[in-house]
Amino acid sequence: MEEIEGWEPHPTRKNIFIDQETGLLYRRTKVGSFRRIPQKMTEHQELEDFRKSSGLVAMTSRSRGRVPPPSDKTLSEESE
Q1: pTM above 0.70, yes or no
Q2: Residue 67: inside a domain, yes or no?
Q3: Is 28 part of a structural domain of the chain?
Q4: In 3D, which of 32, 22, 28 has the Cα closest to residue 9?
């Protein structure tokens, strides 16, 4: 089997490759592109797949868990 960067060939199946980043199975088409095989994914894999397909920028690890700065106004002043 041919070696493709980022892809590991399946040990027993022809034209099936394992993505080294995610561990998901893909079928190689005649043209040379890859199509994902439907399979059960972990929550992390599902979120990563959705993030890549949506094109949205996710929060970075530096911004996770931080509390926004307190505002200068209090609730009682805003309601008046």
Answers
A1: no
A2: no
A3: yes
A4: 28
